[in-house]
Design goal:
Layout lengths: L2 H23 L6 E7 L6 E7 L2 E2 L2 E6 L6 H8 L2 E6 L2 E10 L4 H8 L2 H10 L4 E7 L11 H22 L2 H10 L5 H7 L9 H26 L5 H20 L4 H4 L3 H26 L11
Length: 297
């Protein structure tokens, strides 16, 4: 096994996950920063712990494996990155400096311990310069509050779309069976008006119930869905929601309990899948952001 393979394996599977967890918990030293690049194949965010090379509006990195490093290859494909220092994110544009002396750069950065580790683990040192965007624009420096705002926006957008589309399976089933199309929404209305028997009023009551549940569950999913296999995870989440809605809550409401189970499960699966699709598309459109973690290149 080569030195590069050994040190890369240690970093990917042991060191980086521990450091990322420390950064997320707010216990990492200020000498550590997080670099977020865009995966060259997946287009997903990839986060890598690096030494804190912040110098005003410039951030410096000395890559220990040069152009063989995964994050360096990501930069070659997409130079727009983010850097997290001291709990704050800043966006910038990265450049690879082949003519720069990486050892001299380390000396100027002044992180003696980090420099020693990089030299010990490194095989092909390469300087990376990130020109950070101006702090005057709030969108270039996102804190945890701003990231949660994005999660909420994703959830609300996904929940709105899913609220419209998720009932298609049970609707098609009712059409095929010649059943009453209003029975399912009327059953949902009993969640708000459990003593009501008139179908019209129950259908009207079902509108805010369905919308509230759709938005609420979509917000939950948007906050936990991973960036890889987002749609599949959303689909699995839909099944879990079905188990809760139909298995635990629904059994206390006779009209919900009387509905055919497979179409209702299909509705929940469709809901989770639609949320996954919308969240994935919105994340791709807005670029790298959100939770610390390792993402595929």
């Amino acid at each position: 096994m080569t030195k590069r393979r050994l040190t890369t394996g240690l970093a990917v599977h042991i060191v980086n996950p521990l450091v990322r967890s420390a950064v997320s918990a707010g216990v990492a030293p200020r000498s550590i920063a997080i670099l977020e690049t865009t995966g060259r194949r997946s287009g997903e965010p990839r986060r890598t712990p690096v030494g804190n090379g912040l110098d005003g509006d410039t951030f410096w990195i000395v890559a220990e494996h040069g152009r063989r490093a995964a994050y360096v290859r990501n930069i070659e494909a997409s130079p727009r990155v983010r850097v997290k220092v001291g709990g704050a994110w800043r966006r910038g544009t990265a450049r690879l400096l082949d003519d720069d002396d990486p050892r001299e750069r380390q000396r100027r950065i002044g992180r003696t311990l980090n420099a020693a580790v990089v030299r010990a683990m490194g095989t092909e040192l390469l300087s990376v310069r990130i020109d950070l965007d101006s702090r005057t624009s709030g969108r270039h420096e996102l804190r945890a509050h701003d990231e949660w705002v994005e999660v909420i926006r994703d959830g609300l957008a996904a929940g709105t779309v899913a609220a419209v589309l998720s009932g298609l399976p049970s609707t098609v089933d009712a059409l095929v069976r010649g059943a009453d199309l209003l029975e399912a929404p009327a059953a949902a209305g009993t969640l708000l008006l459990p003593s009501e028997r008139r179908t019209g009023r129950l259908v009207l009551a079902a509108v805010p119930v369905h919308l509230a549940l759709s938005l609420g569950w979509a917000l939950v999913l948007a906050s936990v869905l991973p960036r890889r296999a987002t749609v599949a995870s959303g689909t699995a989440g839909g099944l879990a929601i079905a188990a809760l809605d139909l298995g635990l809550v629904g059994r206390w409401f006779p009209r919900i309990r009387a509905l055919p189970l497979p179409p209702q499960i299909a509705d929940h699966v469709a809901f989770g899948a639609v949320v996954g699709v919308v969240v994935r598309r919105r994340r791709a459109a807005t670029g790298p952001r959100l939770k610390d973690g390792e993402f595929p290149a």
